[in-house]
Amino acid sequence: MEHLTGTRIRREATPATVNLRRCKLVVIKGAQRGTEFVVAGDVFRVGKAPENDLVLADETVSRVHFEIARDAKGYLVRDMKSTNGTFLDGAEVKEAYLRAGSVIGLGACELKFTPFEERIEILPSEKESLGEMVGKSAAMREIFGLIEKIAPTDATVLIEGETGTGKDMIARTLHQLSPRHNAPFIVVDCGAVAGTLIESELFGHEKGSFTGAVAARQGAFELASGGTVFLDELGELSLDLQPKLLRVLEQRELRRVGGTKTIKVDLRVIAATRKDLRSEVEKGKFREDLYFRLNVVPITAPSLRERREDIPLLIDAMLGKLNTSTAGVSGVELSEQTRAALMAHDWPGNVRELRNVIERALALGADPGMLVAPLGTQDPNKGGAHRDGLQFEPGASFRDTKEKWNELFERRYLTWLITRADGNISKAARDADMDRKYLHKLLRKYAISVEGIEDDN
């Protein structure tokens, strides 16, 4: 059972540090006397059944005797309807908070509870890439170092940062480097799902629980059991659903919409938001206990303008992927003038904007620098093309010329976008950071079919 405090990385010469809160159980009475167990995860179960975290082979111990869960106040021991009861310092309890040195009795066995804190230095990684992320800046190498330390744990992670900074890549890398990497990685965009459907998306529903629920359905937490669930844009989650999410985090159990059965889940939770959740708590828009429970390991994804030295690495990585995965794109090289223009741009959309600019420019056969800075020259008295291939016509108004090229760009980009998403409208909208209804409107405007797409340019 782990909790990291003070983990917001400091940009200092000295190494960043984290305090890793842990606890252990020591068997002080019974056949396994003297054995120590470090409590890992958010919920730790003890009993004689093999599925428990701590298995005590004793006939006086129930199959699942008790569990220890961590919440905002501390560590809570909870009896699981055992035959012989659970005792805390000699008194039988249904549930109670543990103190340092508490003795838990179960049947003929006794366990001593001991919390401890481990101070860990987070040194910047020597790597310039980790998972799908690249970066040589101090900010990114410190994040790489933190990921390498916490990925093997089940600690809940809260990733904050502006739109397009790569919070999803951080989450995916944490999963890929964890012991759960062969299990599901389920993504839920809390800002993209309609408010009336988000509860079903997260918790699932039973048949007939609401209009349209023609069959029972598993939610993200069930589907991710054994793996990781990534809650993107968590700051958009409504206040009425936040207590239900808190229950999943604290007890690793849920009920489907319209259901009465309690379902246990084994998963790691990673959340991301572009909002300042601490500020949202102060405004009364986000529950403080949920914020505490999510903010076990906070990571702040830096904006691209804060790590400009990473732009050349990002460009090369993006071009490398495009050269191998995109039809008709091979061996693309950017001029020094273009690279300078890309380096000078402020990138309000961060890494996502950089990727979109490069992909759009290559799809149009244009110079990426033209989309962010005025590169190239052309004789204003003559027609002809820039070196990016754009053709301007003498006598055509600015408005007409702009509309012509906007339509060409939109048609080509939308065709490429929806093809890349294999016809999945929701995925295409997320990739383009676009409202799904607006994407539908544009597809209808240009008569682009989701099935059997053809480029009519």
Q: Brief overview, please?
A:
By secondary structure, the protein is an alpha+beta fold.
Topology:
Blueprint (H helix, E strand, L loop, with lengths): L2 E3 L10 E14 L6 E4 L3 E5 L6 E2 L10 E5 L4 E5 L6 E3 L2 E3 L1 E3 L5 E4 L2 E14 L6 E2 L2 E2 L3 H13 L6 E4 L6 H10 L8 E5 L8 H6 L16 H4 L4 E5 L9 H10 L1 E2 L8 E2 L3 E6 L3 H6 L5 H7 L2 E4 L10 H15 L10 H9 L5 H15 L19 E2 L5 E2 L5 H23 L4 H7 L4 H10 L12
Task: For this entry, give a set of tags.
single chain, 457 residues, alpha+beta, seven-stranded antiparallel sheet, five-stranded mixed sheet, 13 helices, 23 strands, 22% strand, elongated, disordered C terminus
Regarding quaternary structure, what we see is single chain
| E-strand count | 23
- What is the structural class? alpha+beta
- The percent range for helix content is 25-40%
Number of helices: 13
The fraction of residues in strands falls at 15-25%
Average the pLDDT over all residues and give the rounded result. 82
Q: Label the overall shape.
A: elongated
Largest sheet: 7 strands, antiparallel
Based on CA atoms alone, the radius of gyration comes out at 27 Å
Beginning-to-end CA distance, first to last residue:
58 Å
Spans where pLDDT lies below 50 across 5 or more residues? 1-13, 373-389, 452-457
Structure description:
The chain has about 450 residues and is α+β, with helices and mostly antiparallel strands. The protein has 13 helices and 23 strands. The strands form six sheets. Strands 1, 2, 3, 8, 9, 11 and 12 form a seven-stranded antiparallel sheet that branches. Strands 5-4-6-7-10 form a five-stranded mixed sheet, with no helix packed on it. Strands 16-17-20-15-21 form a five-stranded parallel sheet. The longest helix has 23 residues. It is elongated and about 95 Å long. The N terminus and C terminus are likely disordered.
